Amino acid sequence: MKTFRWAVGLSSVVFVATALACGSEPPEGAGDEGGGAGADRDATAGPAPSSDAAVAPPLADGGPNGGEAGGEEGPTEVDGGTCHSLADLGVEVTSRAVSAPLPTGQGGTIAPGRYVLRDFVYYGASKAGLAGSKLHETIYLTSAKQFIVATSPGYPPVQESRTYTAEGTYFYWFSYCPERHNSNPTYTATATTFQLVYRDVDPKTGYVETYEKM
Prior knowledge:
Blueprint: E1 3-8, E2 13-18, E3 93-94, E4 96-98, E5 113-123, E6 134-141, E7 145-151, E8 158-167, E9 170-177, E10 181-183, E11 186-189, E12 193-199, E13 206-213
Parallel strand pairs: 4-5
Antiparallel strand pairs: 1-2, 3-6, 5-6, 5-13, 6-7, 7-8, 8-9, 9-10, 11-12, 12-13
């Protein structure tokens, strides 16, 4: 069976074809460094990025399959060709790049429910040429799991299922479908937003994903 892994490339969001089947059980334990769905996914999160650039417009309410948002149960997990039942309700976001250093994560209480990607920002002077990738993404957070569905123009949707543990300002996650890998970004959570920051080898550079709760 062929699935697709979402990877953040050096200049665009790409989907890498892999011949891997979905695992039926999540791995035990909570994260360690390295090995994320993106390039050099490591750790240091921060507050909402400051920029005059526009972000995606507000979204209408809606659940994973058009129902009511929120709740702790989450999407139905699936054995086989897909990982779960979560529908992508996001709107297209264009990645941005700013020369400022990567911000610092603040932690916070993660509110379970459905979130959509609202902003994707590269940080650091060396990242100036990386803006312009287009994607949309929806995630669903329970108290211990994260479900993801993402799409970039010209590529099929990709799904992913993870377990996670939030400790201090770190968000340790383990992916168990469609393949096993892990990372430990830091995060900032409020009642209405969720933000992950992935650090490069140079701790001043990386990227920030900002999600809005539906």
